[in-house]
Amino acid sequence: MTTHAPTRPTDATAEVSTDDGIAATIAPERSGWIPGTNRIAFGGDYNPEQWDRSVWLEDIALMKDAGVSLVSVGIFSWALLEPREGEYDFSFLDEVMDLLHDAGVSVDLGTPTAAPPAWFWKAHPEARPVTRDGLTLWHGSRGMASPSSSAYRTAATRIADALAAHYAGHPALVLWHVHNEYGAPVSECYSDASSGAFRRWLQSRYSTLDALNAAWGTAFWGQRYGEWDEIDAPRTSASVVNPAHRLDFARYTSNALLECFIAERDAIKRHTPHLPVTTNFMSSNCPSIDYWRWSREVDIVANDYYLVAERADNHVLLALDADLTRSFAGGRPWILMEHSTGAVNWQPRNIAKRPGELARNSLVSVARGADAVLFFQFRASRSGAEKFHSAMLPHGGTATRIWREVEALGVTLGGITDVMGGTVPARVAILWDIESFWAQDLEWRPSVDLGHRERVVAFYTELWRRDVAVDFAHPHDDLSAYDVVLAPASYLLDVASAANLRGFVEGGGRLVASYFSGIVDEHDSVPDGPYPGGLREVLGLRIDEFLPLHAGERPTLDDGSTGSVWSDDVVLDGAQAVATFRDGPAAGRAGVTRNAYGKGSAWYVSTALDADALGGLLERVLEEAGVPSRPAHAVAGLERVERRTADTVFVFLANHGDADVTVDDVSGVDAMTGEAVSGLVVPGAGVRVVRTPIAS
């Protein structure tokens, strides 16, 4: 398992020794923030190559009208910037950057390596990515080549180096944007180049075949390897492939992609060491990237987030993603690099945002730590696969509601500049470990209903409903700053993680673990002894047998709550039963337990409690820990978030319902009008921001 440093920023360049076969260099001291930025950055992707010069002039004039201060350019321009291998033409980009600078608009310059040009594919067919089923993917879409292709890495690093050398002194350039959405749409690649690189990665990780065979449990099904070249990528096979093999390939994939980013970043830093370099994460929605590791390699964390339009709770998921991104950033401000003004174009039903939703989504991100709000994209494309994707300037132009809301948002963001740099203090953390998620979501688990994300969302939602601030943490992190730690989906726990959680509880913390946690180690192997492995002692129980439930089965507990999905044959070994099953396969067994351990306590929830029961349980734990919460509001309710600077608390109130809501317990000054707040009304679908001085 990769060794994780604490998520708080590091201040010096250092070589990190990991056990994953790759020596990673932590980025030098972070640049702080976007140079020259003294307001919340506002703007989006700009693709001038799709338009002639007269449109550029119109666009830049409109950017000034809307208060746009930062645009990302060049992200898909490789074919123009290097029309033939080794031949560069930066003329169109030179002119665009000059025009933007003259208008006072700064540039986030992209390396165009997510879209290799046609000449590259013609010259290097071996770089095409291959799916697990052996299908070769061809040119004609977006997405990178095989991340292990030496031809691709050479070409990508070369164009990054040429761009950095050319634009090192350009006054518009304030930020570098490497690639675009690593891991989408290509993440795992099963090409011959990837298989060879995977073997080398394994040799570095395990050193000997005996160590690999032991870690992978290859005695099962006669899978033992006698030579390194017998090992292939875990391609589709006749039955389920060894899960430890699959898990290591997922680790390798994240690292292979990261090596691509580091190569481009280092080429850029040779020419512009003073400028920050980032890439756009997809924090909770990219299944192939370990962002805890990646966050150590970027100067500023940036994220793309698009609402799942048809989900009624999509604003809760937006908040989760923002909190997760802030956590990857170690509490520092982050960039909302992409979101949409309205509908996207790639969901099954691309539902438009309601009036006011554009601003509300943006301001919720600011409330949760973003100091930059950018959209995809500035002007809507007339051609290509994304011509029906919304934009800051829609096809209908400046007469549209979206454009009016964009202009209004620019004014609003300008009015809350002093929130920049503020933090979101949290006393509760949710564990987030992508390696555990990779392992949990493989085939042949005890139930098809055990996907990790559902439990994480369920726990987060109940805290969101009670206005409880949340950080996310890796189980290796220092947890001492938190009073409560939740483990909704910690299927995989190595020895260090389990010890860390025991130490947290022993020192006075409260831990809540959900079912199917602590089941395997870092090799997806079950440790000696009963379930739940390294959590047995701290939870004060053992599990003799999993008792998954039928679809739709809902056993009751003696406190009136109901469960679903799962139950366990729990045997208490020091813990006390908080609620017991009345019926179902676990009738008479504990469904919820509490164990006093050291100065703290550890709780176990062996079923998917109904939402109100789960929320009530979390309220009880929060109260025991002294963490304040508010009465639960409806999912389409009033979201309240506090962000603090040295001398001010900013209270963001976002009304996700249609009816006006009066808030009586907020005092201070309206951030936009400067008027004293009394009996504050938050209009339906609206947002209010209140400044309250911190008493010295």
Automatic annotation (TrEMBL):
Entry EC number(s): 3.2.1.23
Catalytic reactions of this protein: Hydrolysis of terminal non-reducing beta-D-galactose residues in beta-D-galactosides
InterPro entries: Beta_galactosidase_Trimer, Class_I_gatase-like, GH, Glyco_hydro_42, Glyco_hydro_42_N, Glyco_hydro_b
Native source organism of the sequence: Labedella populi
Highest taxon, organism lineage: Bacteria
Binding site for substrate: 142, 180, 346
Binding site for Zn(2+): 189
Residues at the active site: 181 (proton donor), 338 (nucleophile)
Domain Beta-galactosidase trimerisation: 426-627
Segments forming a coiled coil: none
Name the record gives this protein: Beta-galactosidase
